[in-house]
Sequence to fold (263 residues):
Amino acid sequence: MDREEKIRLLNELLIETEKLPLTDDEALDKLLRRIKMIIYRIFEYTEADLFNMDLEEIHFYSRYTTLSIDAQNKRWKKSQQKLINLITTKIEELTLFGNDDDISEEDQTPEIMGSGDVFIVHGHDDEMKEAVARLLKELDLNPVILHEQPNKGKTIIEKFSEYAEVSFAIILLSPDDICYSSKESLEDGKHRARQNVIFELGFFIGKLGRRYVFPLKRETEMQLPSDYSGIIYTPFDKKGGWKLKLVQELKAVGFEVDANRIV
Fold:
């Protein structure tokens, strides 16, 4: 995506922010989701993550519920202006300095692209792990599953770093844990993937780029990483449609794989 297109999208967000209705929760939620989606589409993960951190510091509501209606409205308008300033700063940055010489993520290829190694990040769902590993073998690719590799006397993080030298990563998101905030009760708990899965998802996005990371999700309600919002997760469906989608993504980044092998 070139600089002009990025600026155009940011200007659209700016206009939407300026038109944000006063104390309209639904409009605010839609706007914030759209901002996160676009930011993670047009910028590298690290830069988008920094933007999101600034975004999280903008609070449209006070934790003190005793504020008067007038005070609440003033807080909303102040937060709205902060959001306008944040987006405006990003537009000015692109206008003045560009963005990494306008080299998009699509033009970047991991140095180890020639490797047929594909890392499988997984939790406790053995069915998903085995199905994905079997598919990769059918495509003449080498599935790398960390616990199946020799330890060589290394710590876990040392072992992970060694075997993470791959061309592509598949992240299996299954509802293995239940979580809830300190302000909630056990009944409010939501399913989510294991913490190591979320950690390694972020690691491979930073290392390889989003195009080389394939998030595969169980078809069930579960909490997903907020910093990765806007990204499309491929469902691990019973009919096996995920297999064709994975082959398409592998081919799109340069792997020579034959879809006929999985029919």
Notes: Confidence is low (pLDDT under 50) at residues 100-107. The chain has eight helices and seven strands.
